[in-house]
Amino acid sequence: MDSENVKPVRKTKEEKKLLRKQIKASHTLLKHEGINTVSQPTKHLVVANGGLGNGVCRRQLQEVLEGAGNLVSLLMPPNKPYAFVTYASSDDAQRAHTLINGQQLECQAQVVTLYLSFVERVSCEQSECAELPPGLVVLEDYVSQEEEACLLQAVDWAADDNATANKALKHRRVKHYGYEFRYDNNNVDKDKPLPTGIPPVCDPVLQRCLKDGHISVLPDQLTVNQYESGQGIPPHIDTHSAFEDTILSLSLGAKTVMDFRHPDGRSVAVLLPERSLLVMKEESRFLWTHGITPRKFDMVPAHYTEGPVAVTSDPSNLTLSRRSTRTSLTFRTVRRTPCDCSYPSVCDSQCPPVIPDSAPSAPSVPQGNKDAFRLEAQFVHQVYEEIASHFSSTRHSPWPRVRDFLLALPAGALLADIGCGNGKYLGINPEVMSVGCDRSASLVQICIERGFQAFVSDALDVPLRGATFDACISIAVIHHFSTQERRLAAVTELVRLLKPGGRALIYVWAMEQEYNKQKSKYLKDSRDKENANPVVDEAEHSMKQSPLPKPAPEVSSTEVTPKLSVHTNRTAFNTQDLLVPWHLKGGEKNACQQGGGSSTDAPKTPAPAPVFHRYYHVFQRGELESLCSLVKDVQIQTSYHDQGNWCVILEKGTK
Ligand SMILES: O=C(O)CCC(=O)C(=O)O
Ligand SMILES: [Fe+2]
Ligand SMILES: [Zn+2]
C-alpha cells in the first residue's frame, strides 16, 4: 500500500512528513494565490497558515519570528492564510526556516501548524481603496473618558417604559429617544414623538458638534445600539425619507470596524475607535451602505496611525483585535420634507417603493430560526422543486476550480456533495466514490437517472456517519440559509462528515461581483439576462424558491428586519439578503405565478414566463472565512474569489 496516491501515514519519518506537508503548502500557495516559492534560501519567506485568515495575530507571530533572527518586515495581508517575512539576511531566514517550519502556534483557541518556504520577493496586492467615502469623517477622542462613562451610565437598559422604545433585536440591543425608529417600515412616526427626548447628558457633545460645524441644527432623534462581541448590524442606508442629511454616531466602550460599500462594489472598512465620533454626510450618508459584520475579531492596524483609518490591506500593519461590548449613540434629525438628494436610485422619496396596500408583502429578513425555516421552505426549497428540470438544463459545465479540487482527490477517496443539484460534480473524478444529497427530490431524481448515488436530505442534518469522508463539497448552497446560525450549522455539518485530515470545498455567492477590476461572468453574461444565476451561472446546488407576492423596495433602508428586495439580474448587489428572480422557460408552468408581478422583470415575449424568487444571502469579503473560523476542529487552508463567488478549502484537524 505504498503507492504515491496513498497519504503518507504514521510510519513515515517525522522530517519526511514535515517536508511533504511543506511542499503541499507551497503547492497550495502557488495554485490558489499565485505565490511562487523557491528552494534556494533568500531573505524572504512565506509562512503558510500564519495569516490573519487563520486567526493568527501579528504580535504572536512576530514574537516567534523575532526569536530566529533580525526581522525586517512582516506582512499579513487581510483575510489570507499566509504571511510574508523579510529578514536582514538569508542566513537569518534560513535559521527561521529550520527553527519554525512545522512549529505549532496556538491562536484564538485553535492550533495552526506553520510551514515556511523561501520566496524571491514578497508581493501583496492592495485591492481595497484607502480613501474614505466622500462626506465621511471620523473624529478621534471626541469625548473624554469621563463623558464616555457618564453617557454609558445614562442609558438605562433596564427601564422598559414606553417613554423610550427598547428592542432586543436578534443581533443587538437598541433603544430610541425622541422618536422610535420602526424596523417594520424602516421609518419613524413623525407625528408620534416619544415622551422622552434626547437625554440632557448628551447636550455637551451635541453643542460641541454644533460649535465645530458638524451640524447646523440639534438632532431630535437618538438610537442607542449595543453590540456584544460577535454581533453586528446588516449593511444598510438610513432611510432617506426618515432623516436629514447629517448622521452622527458616537462609539463608546469599545472600537469596531464599520464597512462602507458603494453600489459599484467599492468597499472601505473604517476603524471607529472608542470615544470617536463618526460623521456621515452627503455621498457617504445617502449612497454608501454602512454595516458592522458580526464577528469576534476585527482586522485593525497593528500600530497607531494618525487620523481616521480606512483599514485597508496595508499588510505591514494589520493585526486582529478582539471585540468587546460597544455602545453607539446615533443622532439624527427627523426629516419633515421629502428627500431631494442627488441619488435617486437609492432614494425612497424619489422612487417610492411599490407595495400596494392590498397585496401580500414581500418577506422580511428572518428574525429567528422559525422564520428562517419558513422563508427557506418557500423561497428556496419549493422553488427548486418547481424549476428543477429547467434549472438542471442550465447546469452542465463544472466550475474549473471545483473540478481541479475533485480531480486532485486520490483514487478510492470518499466524496460527499452536500446540495448536489443535478449531480454535475458527482461524476467528475471516476476514481472517487461519490455520494450526493439535495433538498430537492426532483433534482435527486435527475441524479439517480444519471446513474449517480444521491438521496434527499437537508444540509443541516445529513444522515451519513461522521468522520467518514476524505472530501466534502458545498457548491452554491450555504448562501441559501437565511441566518448566520443556520449558515454556521451548515458548515459545521459539512465538517462533521470529514475524517481527520479531510478537506471541504465551499462556494458561496459574493456580494463583490467585481474583483480586481474584473467583472464576474454573472455581471458580464448577457446570454440569459433574465436568469442570470448567482453564483452559479452554472454551479448550483439545489434549494428552491417560490413565486413572490410583491416586489420589495430596492432602497436598502435602515436597520434590521428590512423587507427583502428583489434583485435585478446581472447587476451589482446593494444588499446582502435578497430575492433573485428565476424566469421559468420551457412551458413547465403556463401562468405567471408572481402574484404582484415585478415590473422590472416582466418578460417581453407574448407568453409570460412564470417568475420564481430564490432567497440568497450574498457573502461579503471575509465573511465566509469568519464563519468558518467559528467551526471547531478545522482550519482554513485557503480562500479565494472565483467568478463572483467566495470560496474556502477547509481541512479538518488530525487528532
Ligand atoms: O452602531 C453604529 O454606529 C451605527 C448604527 C446604525 O447604523 C443605525 O442604527 O442605523
Ligand atoms: Fe445606520
Ligand atoms: Zn434621498
TrEMBL record:
| Cofactor(s) listed | Fe(2+)
Q: Which reaction does it catalyse?
A: 5-(carboxymethyl)uridine(34) in tRNA + S-adenosyl-L-methionine = 5-(2-methoxy-2-oxoethyl)uridine(34) in tRNA + S-adenosyl-L-homocysteine
Record domain Fe2OG dioxygenase: where: 218-335
Its Gene Ontology cellular component terms are: cytoplasm; nucleus
An example of a GO molecular function for this protein is: tRNA binding
Q: Which residues form the RRM domain?
A: 45-121
Q: Where are the transmembrane segments?
A: none
Does the entry feature the keyword rRNA-binding, yes or no?
no
In this chain, composition skew of type Basic and acidic residues spans 520-531
Q: Which UniProt keywords apply?
A: Cytoplasm, Iron, Metal-binding, Methyltransferase, Multifunctional enzyme, Nucleus, RNA-binding, S-adenosyl-L-methionine, Transferase, Zinc
Which coarse location class describes where this protein primarily resides?
Answer: cytoplasm
Question: Sorted alphabetically, which InterPro entries does this protein's record hold?
Answer: AlkB-like, AlkB-like_sf, AlkB_hom8_N, AlkB_tRNA_MeTrf/Diox, ALKBH8_RRM, Methyltransf_11, Nucleotide-bd_a/b_plait_sf, Oxoglu/Fe-dep_dioxygenase_dom
What family is this protein classified in?
A: Belongs to the alkB family.
Q: What does this protein do?
A: Catalyzes the methylation of 5-carboxymethyl uridine to 5-methylcarboxymethyl uridine at the wobble position of the anticodon loop in tRNA via its methyltransferase domain. Catalyzes the last step in the formation of 5-methylcarboxymethyl uridine at the wobble position of the anticodon loop in target tRNA. Has a preference for tRNA(Arg) and tRNA(Glu), and does not bind tRNA(Lys).
This chain's protein is named tRNA (carboxymethyluridine(34)-5-O)-methyltransferase
Which species is the source of this protein? Alosa alosa (allis shad)
